[in-house]
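Supplementary Methods S3. Input chains for the assembly prediction are listed below.
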Amino acid sequence: MRAATAEASRRKPPAVRRDWVSKTLAGTLLGLSLALAPSGLYSEFNAAMPLPVRGQLMMWMVPPIWLGTLSGVYFFGSGLRAWLWLGGANAVAYGALLALRLSA
Amino acid sequence: MRADFVRIYKSVHTWTGILSGMALFIAFYTGALTVFKEPITRWATAPVQARLVPLEAAQPLILKALAADPQVARGFAVHLEDAEHVIARMEWEVRDPQADDHDETGTRHYGAVLDAKGEVRVQELQPSPLAGFIDVLHRVVGLPADSDPNRWFMGVVAALYTLALVSGVVVLLPSLVKDFFALRVGKNLKRMWLDAHNVVGILSLPFHLVMALTAVVFAYHDQIYDLQDRFLHRGGWGQAFPRPQGEPASVPARDPSAMLTPAQLVQAARAAAPGFEPTLLQYQQVTGPRAVVRVWGKDAAAVSPRAMGGFAAFDPYSGKLLSTDYLPGRQDTPNLFISSFFALHMASFGGAEVLWMYFLLGMAGAWLFYSGNLLWIETRRRRAARKDPALPPQRLDARLMGAATVGVCLGCVCGTSLTIAGGKWLHGAPGDMLAWHQALYYAMFFGCIAWAFWRGAAQAAVHLLWAASLLTLAIPLTTLLAWLAPGTGMWAHASPGTLGVDAVALAGALCFAWMARATARRMASGPQDSVWSGRRAPERLSGSVSLAQRSESR
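Predicted structure tokens for the full assembly:
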């Protein structure tokens, strides 16, 4: 019995660190920058659409992506992980945007 | 889902809910009322003394007004309807140059009328500011003016709200099927309130997500546009919207008498979109090279981009259809998408049924936030020990939250009812009507909060619910009085829309009375070990141990 529980506690995932401030900052700041990138990508892929309309759609897509990211940030195991993963996601998104722009 | 995540997201939900709940109550309650902004405006508008210039005489009226004051050519409107809120056939406004984009409080309204000799007379109009004020309370969560900083505050509330919605779903998800369909009515009050909170929350989740996200957009769209312009458009955004500047003197002014008449423009609009019912003509820069008239109107079968509907843009001289970007039923797909975001917030689709649905969803939403705070309080209840008759003193934070919730929420209800009724009573009073409406609302609002903190949540809830009932009853009673005694200077409109305002107020008054009785019953015979019990004498909120001990031994 004791052996089983010892094994079970070894297999249990590490507790989620609360890190409220760190995670919230990551979600707020990196979430916003992360939300702007898809709007840029959308603009590149829809350059033929008139700017007044395209620009509005670009603006509307920012809050859902931003707040969706912020809402999910508390699933990360720690604040550090949140910063690393979101930082990485930002790098990928802006890398794609830059690549598109340079190749256009 | 791991229990740890549920615990974490329960914290997120609790904190974001507690911080934003009362502000959201105000936004939802006044939002539900704003669905009926036009009927409320009509209810609160005094009958016009002079008869409205008939629509057939609108064109001569326009020409004479423009001759009298050429500045009016920059922008003016012609009403096509004959309804209580139309106080001049032709009107225009002069905005306060210092005011924020959405802040209407400094705007002055002018109208053109024809006197007995057929001469044009320009007069300053005093349209009822009541519904606009309720809309401001809605837009900036109870703050007095729709300014940019106030919107940014509202944006924070809306962002917290979004977090509260997502976290609420995360918390509920593991037990969704088991708990969702179980509305356990019974002795365990907290279980019942929690089940009800969950059911209302999940059922209206799409509505709430739309409201939260659109509100964030309304708060921060300019800032997002700025960021996108700087980093993505590289300055191109500003050029996309040419602002109508004052035209250079070298361009000869066009002769407005060559414009199509309102009747012709209406016909052109109806031809452009069958099913579109024009209500208003908005003329812009009519003596300039880029003259345009927007024929505003509604189409219940289509999506409208704004609360007041959509428009077809015409050249007023040639009748050429310039743009259908905002024309319900004729928009291209991207514009339709954008319009639908607005329409889902403003209920500008589907007609009267959707308006009533939004009204009910708005009220249910207000209840959702109220019940959330109540659950928070209930979780922190100190229960009496089984064998020990002495009542434990309730936690200070629970007592404060109870008083605040009761005061703020019922203060908003009482304040809006008072200021609505005041729309008739204060007609003709000296001074600025908007200032009167604000004074009535805020005096009642803060008075209710003060009362709730002084008397405690339990007693104040009963008092304020009765006050809400009486103040809301005052609305139809005022109309009745005006009908019976027109000498009072008040009026009683009899159109379905305005009578609807009185009818809904009557129904509301009855609801508040019922709630007052239920709350009084709870106070008298409900569990006494609670902030909602009436047993203890009004406590001073210093929370010191000696006071608590003294009240315990009473």
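The interface with chain A takes residues 2, 4-5, 8-9, 12, 159, 162-163, 166-167, 212-213, 216-217, 220-221, 224-225, 227-228, 231-233, 236-237, 240-241, 325, 334-335, 337-338, 341 of chain B (CB under 8 Å). Residues 3-34 of chain B form the longest helix (32 residues).
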